[in-house]
Amino acid sequence: MERKVLLVDMDPQANSTQGLGFDSPFEEDIYDALLLPESEVTTERVQKFIQKTSMEYLDIFPCSRSLAGLEIQLIQEEHRDRRLKSILDSIKRDYDFVLIDSPPSLNVLTLNVLTAADSVLIPIQCEYYALQGLAELLNTIRLVQQSTNPHLTIEGALLTMYDSRLNLSKQVVEDVKSTFSEKVFKTVIPRSVKLSEAPSFGKPIILYDVVSAGAVRYMELAKEVIGND
Question: Which pLDDT score, from 0 to 100, does residue 152 have?
Fold first, then answer.
């Protein structure tokens, strides 16, 4: 949508990094940035971690599996849940949007994400188990609002892997709408072979198959998010 975007990969699985075609480990990534002494967190220093992608308007702050060990290393550190916020505050003026890919578990990495973020977009697969962790996530968001980030809001819930042939998918949609009411995106992402294939080719869906149903829906979602900004 020709908006300058930074994608920050805070998930130790590094799926966002790999999904954009980066397989080789970097000399430095988000793991190293989060361990920087506060005095070294400057715009010039942080920019060195950021990588250009094959898309003109998209940069990535990559990560590797070493990020999984960060929690132990930060356990004695003061303000360990504010490390990411400090890093992003130094560079966010360079971007229209900063998207942070958070780990699915609730740990110090997730707390860093929620402390740094303005809002939370919650993807929910249209499957039974996807709803079970929702109450815990909402409780964590409330705790963060009460402590490190009082301005944190819920951008919206995004329904994904929707299959109109399944009654379960329809039931999940109803349950999510009853939980979030108007905070559910109108765009619903369908279950799609093309969406499943794209990461294995190291490409986002709009480069892998721009006319696929998944690509069209994600473009609709982008318009919806921009419209809400």
Answer: 96
